[in-house]
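ingest -> validate -> predict -> emit
validate: passed (alphabet ok, no gaps, 98 aa)
predict: started
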Amino acid sequence: MELPAEAAMDQLRAADRERWLALLWVKARLRAPVAAALLLDLELERVVAELSEPLLAEIRLAWWRDRLAALAHGEPPPAQPLLIVLANARRAGLDLVA
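emit:
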């Protein structure tokens, strides 16, 4: 279940029009990796905003941290669409560690 780069950009447009508009200024070859990073930022923002229990938010954020570290070390992504997009973006040069 791979989320293609175009779908990632469409998802970004639906979720946050301002970030999507900023993405249009990025060189075409870099749009997919930047869209992936922006979608990750939106997901982390959503975790913090929606979870009322701080411990639950901390657990979810730790899960994301661990998954990103695994991707950075070349492990294949689980069947989670955003992680698949991030894995593709990593192959395109996005640094998941910094």
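The chain has a mean pLDDT of 86.
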